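User: Some background: our group keeps a shared notebook of sequences we're curious about, and every so often someone picks one and asks for a predicted structure to add to the entry. Today it's my turn. The entry only has the sequence so far, pasted here. Could you supply the structure so I can complete it?
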Amino acid sequence: MKLPPEFYRRPDPVQIARELLGKHVFSRVDGRLTGGRIIETEAYSHHGDNSLAMHLKRLSTASQALLEPGGRVYLYKVYQRHTLFNICTNEAGKTDTVLLRAIEPLVGLDVMQERRGAAIKPDRLTAGPGMLTQALGLTPALTGTDLQGNLLWIEDHGEIVSANQLLAGPRIGLEYAGAVAASLPWNLQIVG
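Assistant: Of course. Here's the predicted structure to add to the notebook entry:
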């Protein structure tokens, strides 16, 4: 069952990031189904994060998706190479997001392998945010996609991730945004 829009429109991106663990994300790009279980997320909030961490310094036409109501995607490139997959959360005008950092690949592994372009072990196909988007076939052209459609969506398969399966730590690669933003324990992973 697809997660409803209300799931994404709540005011706490850290809670949403936590609850996305164990859910399943799917893409149907070029008619090819791929997907897997979400195992790592990272939260970004308009409360507590500075404008560097939130991409507000470079708000462009593409990043207007950040201002949409929760349940749409914001896909952007870093280092002019890797695309990152963010889910907009909260109500319209609030720039909260959850970055999907890693999934356990489960569906369309042959397609993912082809998209990644090399003989990569299945456990490394989607082991980072750039690898994840490449394997799912996601590009910045899909920014603004509604997660209620048939191109990109998230399903609840009934898994509950317990506290002893959860590791929370500082977000990755945010040193440029300052010590406070970098140290917030909003990187969440399933362990064990």
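Suggested note for the entry: The longest helix spans residues 13-20. The first strand starts at residue 24 and ends at 29.
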